[in-house]
Design goal:
Strand content: under 5%
Helix content: over 70%
Largest sheet: none
Radius of gyration: 20 Å
Pfam families: ABC2_membrane (PF01061)
GO molecular function, one term: ABC-type transporter activity
Order of helices and strands: HHHHHHHHHHHH
Distance between the termini: 15 Å
Number of strands: 0
Shape: globular
Family: Belongs to the ABC-2 integral membrane protein family.
Protein name: Transport permease protein
InterPro entries: ABC2_TM, ABC2_TM_bact-type, ABC_2_transport, Nod_factor_ABC_transporter
Amino acid sequence: MGSEGMTQLAAERARPGPARVPAMAVLQYHLVGYRRTWRGGVLSSFLLPALTVLGFGVGVGAFVDQGVDGVSYLEWIVGGLLASTALQVAIAESTWPVYSSLQWTKIYFAQYAAPLRVADILAGQLAFVLFRVLTSAAAFLLVTGVLGALRSPWAVLALPVAALLGLAVAAPTFAYAATASSDSWLALLFRFAVIPMTLFAGVFFPVESLPVGLRWLAYATPLWHAVDLSRAATLGTAPVWSVTGHLLYLAAWAVGGWLLAHRALRRRLVV
Protein backbone atom coordinates (compact mmCIF):
# COMPACT_ATOMS: atom_id res chain seq x y z
CA MET A 1 0.00 0.00 0.00
CA GLY A 2 1.41 3.41 -1.04
CA SER A 3 1.73 6.49 1.10
CA GLU A 4 -1.50 7.91 -0.36
CA GLY A 5 -3.40 4.75 0.54
CA MET A 6 -1.94 4.79 4.05
CA THR A 7 -3.03 8.40 4.46
CA GLN A 8 -6.56 7.59 3.31
CA LEU A 9 -6.77 4.60 5.65
CA ALA A 10 -5.51 6.64 8.59
CA ALA A 11 -7.99 9.40 7.80
CA GLU A 12 -10.89 6.97 7.72
CA ARG A 13 -9.88 5.31 10.98
CA ALA A 14 -9.74 8.75 12.58
CA ARG A 15 -13.32 9.51 11.65
CA PRO A 16 -15.96 9.44 14.40
CA GLY A 17 -17.05 5.88 15.17
CA PRO A 18 -20.39 4.33 16.00
CA ALA A 19 -20.52 6.07 19.38
CA ARG A 20 -21.26 9.38 17.60
CA VAL A 21 -22.86 8.42 14.30
CA PRO A 22 -23.99 4.78 14.40
CA ALA A 23 -25.05 2.67 11.44
CA MET A 24 -28.56 2.85 12.91
CA ALA A 25 -28.73 6.41 11.55
CA VAL A 26 -28.45 5.01 8.02
CA LEU A 27 -31.10 2.41 8.73
CA GLN A 28 -33.35 5.13 10.13
CA TYR A 29 -32.88 7.14 6.95
CA HIS A 30 -34.06 4.20 4.83
CA LEU A 31 -36.97 3.45 7.15
CA VAL A 32 -38.17 7.05 7.04
CA GLY A 33 -38.17 6.88 3.26
CA TYR A 34 -39.92 3.51 3.30
CA ARG A 35 -42.59 4.87 5.64
CA ARG A 36 -43.73 7.11 2.82
CA THR A 37 -43.85 4.38 0.17
CA TRP A 38 -44.78 1.14 1.97
CA ARG A 39 -48.47 1.37 1.08
CA GLY A 40 -47.64 0.88 -2.57
CA GLY A 41 -46.13 -2.52 -1.82
CA VAL A 42 -48.62 -3.90 0.66
CA LEU A 43 -50.93 -5.35 -1.96
CA SER A 44 -48.11 -7.03 -3.84
CA SER A 45 -46.63 -8.34 -0.59
CA PHE A 46 -49.76 -10.40 0.00
CA LEU A 47 -51.31 -10.74 -3.45
CA LEU A 48 -48.15 -11.86 -5.25
CA PRO A 49 -47.41 -14.74 -2.83
CA ALA A 50 -51.02 -15.89 -3.05
CA LEU A 51 -51.00 -15.85 -6.86
CA THR A 52 -47.61 -17.55 -6.99
CA VAL A 53 -48.64 -20.32 -4.62
CA LEU A 54 -51.95 -20.84 -6.39
CA GLY A 55 -50.43 -20.64 -9.86
CA PHE A 56 -47.58 -23.06 -9.29
CA GLY A 57 -48.74 -25.07 -6.30
CA VAL A 58 -52.33 -25.60 -7.41
CA GLY A 59 -52.13 -25.01 -11.17
CA VAL A 60 -48.94 -26.91 -11.95
CA GLY A 61 -49.53 -29.22 -9.00
CA ALA A 62 -52.68 -30.52 -10.67
CA PHE A 63 -50.44 -32.19 -13.26
CA VAL A 64 -48.14 -33.68 -10.60
CA ASP A 65 -50.57 -36.35 -9.42
CA GLN A 66 -48.10 -38.28 -7.28
CA GLY A 67 -46.64 -35.23 -5.57
CA VAL A 68 -42.95 -35.01 -4.70
CA ASP A 69 -41.22 -37.08 -2.03
CA GLY A 70 -44.55 -38.25 -0.66
CA VAL A 71 -46.16 -34.81 -0.22
CA SER A 72 -48.37 -32.74 -2.50
CA TYR A 73 -46.65 -30.44 -4.97
CA LEU A 74 -48.28 -27.44 -3.30
CA GLU A 75 -46.75 -28.27 0.08
CA TRP A 76 -43.43 -29.23 -1.48
CA ILE A 77 -42.98 -26.00 -3.45
CA VAL A 78 -43.73 -23.55 -0.63
CA GLY A 79 -40.25 -23.68 0.93
CA GLY A 80 -38.59 -23.04 -2.41
CA LEU A 81 -40.88 -20.16 -3.28
CA LEU A 82 -40.25 -18.54 0.10
CA ALA A 83 -36.48 -18.71 -0.40
CA SER A 84 -36.83 -17.44 -3.95
CA THR A 85 -38.91 -14.49 -2.72
CA ALA A 86 -36.21 -13.60 -0.18
CA LEU A 87 -33.54 -13.80 -2.89
CA GLN A 88 -35.38 -11.51 -5.28
CA VAL A 89 -36.20 -8.92 -2.62
CA ALA A 90 -32.60 -8.87 -1.38
CA ILE A 91 -31.15 -8.42 -4.85
CA ALA A 92 -33.76 -5.83 -5.86
CA GLU A 93 -32.87 -3.74 -2.78
CA SER A 94 -29.13 -4.07 -3.44
CA THR A 95 -28.93 -3.14 -7.12
CA TRP A 96 -30.67 0.04 -8.32
CA PRO A 97 -30.92 1.63 -4.84
CA VAL A 98 -27.15 1.19 -4.38
CA TYR A 99 -26.32 2.29 -7.92
CA SER A 100 -28.62 5.32 -7.58
CA SER A 101 -27.06 6.34 -4.27
CA LEU A 102 -23.65 6.40 -5.92
CA GLN A 103 -24.38 7.61 -9.44
CA TRP A 104 -27.57 9.65 -9.44
CA THR A 105 -28.64 10.97 -6.04
CA LYS A 106 -25.14 10.76 -4.47
CA ILE A 107 -26.71 9.87 -1.11
CA TYR A 108 -23.71 7.82 0.00
CA PHE A 109 -21.37 10.74 -0.61
CA ALA A 110 -23.57 12.96 1.56
CA GLN A 111 -23.71 10.32 4.29
CA TYR A 112 -19.94 9.90 4.21
CA ALA A 113 -19.57 13.65 4.64
CA ALA A 114 -21.95 13.62 7.63
CA PRO A 115 -19.55 12.05 8.73
CA LEU A 116 -20.32 8.35 8.60
CA ARG A 117 -17.81 5.58 8.17
CA VAL A 118 -17.94 3.31 5.14
CA ALA A 119 -18.84 0.41 7.43
CA ASP A 120 -21.76 2.42 8.88
CA ILE A 121 -23.21 3.16 5.45
CA LEU A 122 -22.85 -0.45 4.35
CA ALA A 123 -24.25 -1.87 7.58
CA GLY A 124 -27.24 0.48 7.52
CA GLN A 125 -28.05 -0.38 3.91
CA LEU A 126 -27.80 -4.13 4.55
CA ALA A 127 -29.88 -3.80 7.71
CA PHE A 128 -32.65 -2.22 5.64
CA VAL A 129 -32.36 -5.04 3.09
CA LEU A 130 -32.69 -7.50 5.97
CA PHE A 131 -35.82 -5.68 7.14
CA ARG A 132 -37.35 -5.88 3.67
CA VAL A 133 -36.48 -9.56 3.30
CA LEU A 134 -37.95 -10.48 6.68
CA THR A 135 -41.19 -8.56 6.17
CA SER A 136 -41.66 -10.03 2.69
CA ALA A 137 -40.89 -13.56 3.89
CA ALA A 138 -43.25 -13.15 6.85
CA ALA A 139 -46.03 -11.99 4.52
CA PHE A 140 -45.39 -14.99 2.26
CA LEU A 141 -45.44 -17.35 5.23
CA LEU A 142 -48.70 -15.83 6.48
CA VAL A 143 -50.39 -16.19 3.10
CA THR A 144 -49.28 -19.80 2.64
CA GLY A 145 -50.41 -20.60 6.18
CA VAL A 146 -53.87 -19.19 5.45
CA LEU A 147 -54.00 -21.28 2.28
CA GLY A 148 -53.17 -24.38 4.31
CA ALA A 149 -49.90 -25.07 2.49
CA LEU A 150 -47.72 -25.46 5.59
CA ARG A 151 -47.30 -28.95 7.03
CA SER A 152 -45.30 -28.11 10.13
CA PRO A 153 -45.07 -25.39 12.83
CA TRP A 154 -41.31 -25.53 12.23
CA ALA A 155 -42.07 -23.38 9.19
CA VAL A 156 -41.27 -20.29 11.28
CA LEU A 157 -37.60 -21.32 11.09
CA ALA A 158 -37.73 -20.44 7.41
CA LEU A 159 -37.65 -16.76 8.44
CA PRO A 160 -34.08 -16.75 9.83
CA VAL A 161 -33.06 -18.84 6.82
CA ALA A 162 -34.53 -16.16 4.55
CA ALA A 163 -32.66 -13.49 6.50
CA LEU A 164 -29.34 -15.31 6.15
CA LEU A 165 -29.95 -15.87 2.45
CA GLY A 166 -30.77 -12.17 2.10
CA LEU A 167 -27.42 -11.19 3.58
CA ALA A 168 -25.62 -13.86 1.56
CA VAL A 169 -26.81 -12.41 -1.74
CA ALA A 170 -27.28 -8.73 -0.82
CA ALA A 171 -23.67 -8.17 0.26
CA PRO A 172 -21.99 -9.39 -2.97
CA THR A 173 -24.72 -7.74 -5.03
CA PHE A 174 -23.95 -4.46 -3.25
CA ALA A 175 -20.31 -4.86 -4.33
CA TYR A 176 -21.41 -5.56 -7.90
CA ALA A 177 -23.72 -2.53 -8.03
CA ALA A 178 -21.06 -0.29 -6.48
CA THR A 179 -18.63 -1.14 -9.28
CA ALA A 180 -21.11 -1.13 -12.18
CA SER A 181 -20.30 1.47 -14.82
CA SER A 182 -23.87 1.51 -16.15
CA ASP A 183 -27.27 0.44 -14.89
CA SER A 184 -27.41 -1.94 -17.85
CA TRP A 185 -25.11 -4.21 -15.85
CA LEU A 186 -27.82 -4.53 -13.22
CA ALA A 187 -30.32 -5.84 -15.75
CA LEU A 188 -27.72 -8.37 -16.91
CA LEU A 189 -27.40 -9.60 -13.33
CA PHE A 190 -31.09 -10.48 -13.25
CA ARG A 191 -31.02 -12.02 -16.71
CA PHE A 192 -27.94 -14.20 -16.34
CA ALA A 193 -27.82 -14.87 -12.59
CA VAL A 194 -31.12 -14.36 -10.76
CA ILE A 195 -33.44 -15.98 -13.32
CA PRO A 196 -31.26 -19.07 -13.99
CA MET A 197 -30.65 -19.49 -10.27
CA THR A 198 -34.37 -19.33 -9.57
CA LEU A 199 -35.16 -21.86 -12.29
CA PHE A 200 -32.47 -24.43 -11.56
CA ALA A 201 -31.76 -24.22 -7.80
CA GLY A 202 -34.49 -26.60 -6.71
CA VAL A 203 -37.35 -24.15 -6.33
CA PHE A 204 -39.71 -25.81 -8.82
CA PHE A 205 -38.32 -29.33 -9.14
CA PRO A 206 -35.75 -31.52 -7.34
CA VAL A 207 -32.17 -30.68 -8.23
CA GLU A 208 -31.46 -34.43 -8.39
CA SER A 209 -33.36 -34.57 -11.69
CA LEU A 210 -30.74 -32.35 -13.36
CA PRO A 211 -27.66 -33.71 -15.19
CA VAL A 212 -24.64 -34.06 -12.91
CA GLY A 213 -22.87 -30.95 -14.21
CA LEU A 214 -25.88 -28.68 -13.78
CA ARG A 215 -26.64 -30.31 -10.45
CA TRP A 216 -23.31 -29.23 -9.00
CA LEU A 217 -23.79 -25.72 -10.38
CA ALA A 218 -27.08 -25.62 -8.50
CA TYR A 219 -25.35 -26.82 -5.33
CA ALA A 220 -22.88 -23.93 -5.68
CA THR A 221 -25.62 -21.31 -5.55
CA PRO A 222 -26.64 -19.87 -2.18
CA LEU A 223 -30.30 -20.20 -3.17
CA TRP A 224 -30.23 -24.01 -3.23
CA HIS A 225 -28.90 -24.17 0.33
CA ALA A 226 -31.67 -21.85 1.53
CA VAL A 227 -34.27 -23.80 -0.46
CA ASP A 228 -33.21 -27.07 1.17
CA LEU A 229 -33.40 -25.54 4.65
CA SER A 230 -36.69 -23.72 4.02
CA ARG A 231 -38.31 -26.80 2.51
CA ALA A 232 -37.22 -28.90 5.48
CA ALA A 233 -38.75 -26.30 7.82
CA THR A 234 -42.10 -26.02 6.01
CA LEU A 235 -42.41 -29.80 5.65
CA GLY A 236 -41.07 -30.65 9.11
CA THR A 237 -38.43 -33.01 7.71
CA ALA A 238 -34.64 -33.18 7.68
CA PRO A 239 -32.85 -31.32 4.87
CA VAL A 240 -31.04 -33.19 2.13
CA TRP A 241 -27.66 -31.87 3.28
CA SER A 242 -26.26 -30.96 6.70
CA VAL A 243 -27.92 -28.02 8.45
CA THR A 244 -24.54 -26.85 9.73
CA GLY A 245 -23.04 -27.10 6.26
CA HIS A 246 -25.85 -25.06 4.76
CA LEU A 247 -25.57 -22.34 7.39
CA LEU A 248 -21.78 -22.13 7.11
CA TYR A 249 -21.96 -21.89 3.34
CA LEU A 250 -24.49 -19.06 3.45
CA ALA A 251 -22.48 -17.31 6.18
CA ALA A 252 -19.36 -17.55 4.01
CA TRP A 253 -21.21 -15.82 1.18
CA ALA A 254 -22.36 -13.10 3.58
CA VAL A 255 -18.90 -12.49 5.05
CA GLY A 256 -17.14 -12.60 1.68
CA GLY A 257 -19.75 -10.31 0.19
CA TRP A 258 -19.36 -7.85 3.06
CA LEU A 259 -15.60 -7.63 2.48
CA LEU A 260 -16.08 -7.09 -1.25
CA ALA A 261 -18.83 -4.53 -0.70
CA HIS A 262 -16.81 -2.61 1.90
CA ARG A 263 -13.81 -2.50 -0.43
CA ALA A 264 -15.90 -1.37 -3.41
CA LEU A 265 -17.74 1.33 -1.46
CA ARG A 266 -14.56 2.59 0.17
CA ARG A 267 -12.93 2.97 -3.25
CA ARG A 268 -15.85 5.10 -4.39
CA LEU A 269 -16.15 7.29 -1.29
CA VAL A 270 -12.63 7.71 0.06
CA VAL A 271 -10.92 10.22 -2.20
